[in-house]
Amino acid sequence: MSTLAASPAQRAIRRGLVLTGIGLAALAGVYLLALQFTPIERFQGLPQKIFYVHVPAAWSALLAFSLVGIASALYLWLRDPRLDWFAESSAEAGLVFSVVMLTTGPLWGKPIWGTYWTWDARLTFTLLLFFLFLGYRALRGAMHEPGDRARYSAVVGIMGLVLVPFVHLTVYLFNTLHPKPIVLKPDSPSLPWEMLRTLLVSLGAFTVLLFGFVTARYGLARRSAEQGEEVGRGD
Amino acid sequence: MRETLRVALVVAEKDLRVELRSRTAFISAVTLAALILLVFNFARDAAVVSREALAPSVLWVTLAFVGVTVLNRSFAVERENGALDGLLLAPVSRSAVFLGKYAANLVFVLVVETLTVLLVVLFFGADLRGTLGAILATVFLASAGFVAVGTVFAAMTARTRFAELMLPLLLLPFLVPPVIAGVQVTTRLLAGRPVSEIAGWLRILGLYDIVFFTLGLLVFPSLMDE
Amino acid sequence: MPSSTPSEPALLEASDLERRFGAARALRGVSLTVRAGECHLVAGPNGAGKSTLLRLLAGLARPSAGTVLLEGRRLAGRPLRARQVAPPAEPALRRHIGLLSHQSQLYDDLTAGENLAFAARLHGLDHPEDRARSGLAAVGLAERADTPVRKLSRGMIQRVAFARAILHEPRLILLDEPFTGMDPVSSDAVRERLDALLRTGCALVLVTHDVLEAWELASHAHVMVRGEWMRSGPRGASMDGFLHEYREVVRA
What we know:
The complex is a heterotrimer of chains A (235), B (226) and C (252).
Chain A: H1 8-36, H2 51-78, H3 81-113, H4 121-142, H5 146-177, H6 193-233
Helix pairs in contact in A: 1-6, 2-3, 2-4, 2-5, 2-6, 3-4, 3-6, 4-5
Chain B: H1 2-22, H2 24-42, H3 51-72, H4 76-80, H5 83-89, H6 94-124, H7 132-155, H8 163-190, H9 195-224
Chain C: E1 12-21, E2 24-34, E3 39-43, H1 50-58, E4 65-70, E5 73-77, E6 97-100, H2 112-122, H3 128-138, H4 154-166, E7 172-176, H5 184-199, E8 203-207, H6 211-215, E9 220-225, E10 228-234, H7 239-251
Parallel strand pairs in C: 3-8, 3-9, 6-7, 7-8
Antiparallel strand pairs in C: 1-2, 1-4, 4-5, 9-10
Helix pairs in contact in C: 2-3, 2-4, 3-4
């Protein structure tokens, strides 16, 4: 049985795809901006430009994780399945962005530092987020009953979010005791205006992209959950 | 409140009694600790790396894995004959069940950890300089929060078997802050550094404990729903 | 067979219970009213949803829709609107419920006596060891008090589990296949005990494949097929008649 009017799920998918489209266009713009209109960093040269993808990806991963945690907490309180779908979608998007960050890091590290991986604070932190996303996903994949799955993953989501500040703090302190090569030199306060501008635009593009992914994925999750219910009703 | 504590004590006492009767989890955890230490000993180049220098790291890595193993079993006994239902049918709050499980888990973990510390001292020749008490205290402080998280995650295994495989994957990220702090404190203690240097780390451990114990208490009831 | 006055408030009132597991529907539109002194027999093929129903009545599981009221108070029930937070079931209400499920709920490494004493302590009963001993004596297992559960035979385990379920003198006793795996002598002992409990005003909901075992006790008989009542109401006089009805609806 299908209705002519677009269901909330379909609207979400549509909206999500639109946002993703905008985000991708913005991303293309960022590439242009970064390559043509932003000066080359003195010490690191051309490879430094990965910075404009590397940092926003990390930011998106963290934002996604925060969304998972907040949606999880709200779900346990309100038990609204939409919050569960939202958390699931944010986790998948976050997984994608953390993978982007973890691959651009080594790509950047190799030409500049001669090594693929450094245990600097940001990389380490994102690696941990990656494992949390993975664990969240693995747990969900192994549970088939929607109610149990939603509750269990919500618990993991909340605990994960609360863990994040502790990891950030301890890893940061650990690194100040064992100084690493500073992977993100342009991170310093004296970032020239052109670089800052490109960075901010990129951050914006990634954020839009994140919300595009999450919205579209939410729509898909909602649709498959509702279709499952439809099938059940026909018993 | 008193009722909650009373029930928690009843549950904890039962867990300890069951474990004392069979001793399987305890023995396998201690054996695991010894085996891990054995492997660590051979996993270094003895000419380059001294035993003593490695001791703090080895200690905390071993504690992490052994701790996860102990916690993995904590709800297995409730799953075997559906005994969890018995707990949930009793006219007691879910929090009381959590407290009881947490207390029993904490006792097991602390006992196994103490033995691990002694094994590390034995195998890695760490010169304690009278710091054994302080090291044990640090280990205990680091465990309180982590056991809360482990109790919550282990509760997921009470109804579904698969979760036992997933427990280490989920739990290890939560060990990162306690292990980082623990190694820092242990290294300094063994080097005879002043307390002021470790106070900050101890505060982090304490905060971690309070936060995750409270959080565990709050989320546990939702796991017991069906 | 004890009778009860209809004007008394019902001990248990389940209305329009529904329980979904994802897309699958285990229970649909199930209602049940149980009064003191009644014994409700629930029969049905495997997978019909009978065990799920018991778990809902025990307050262990929440229904996807519908409510369960115990002595007029809400035991568990879905909120009325999606955004509403469901009130937690009052723990104290569970005092009135005893459940004997498929699994024994016992700890294999503890003795029968220790298991019952633990249950007594959980329920806050006075003199837990004494209660444990008398509970075991009532099912004819006094001499096994110090035997670890793993060493008991299946029938004995069932009896200990039964003793555990009724230890705190609940008014509503839910039983899932209580006679399975029991020899005739044990079954008789349990049946006698249930009869005595009915006389004191307890109510039973008894799920069973074996209608014969429970027929004498029953005041009401229901048949559940694929999560719905096919037959629900007071027990007729003839067991053969009921079995005939049963076969009809199950085959349909």
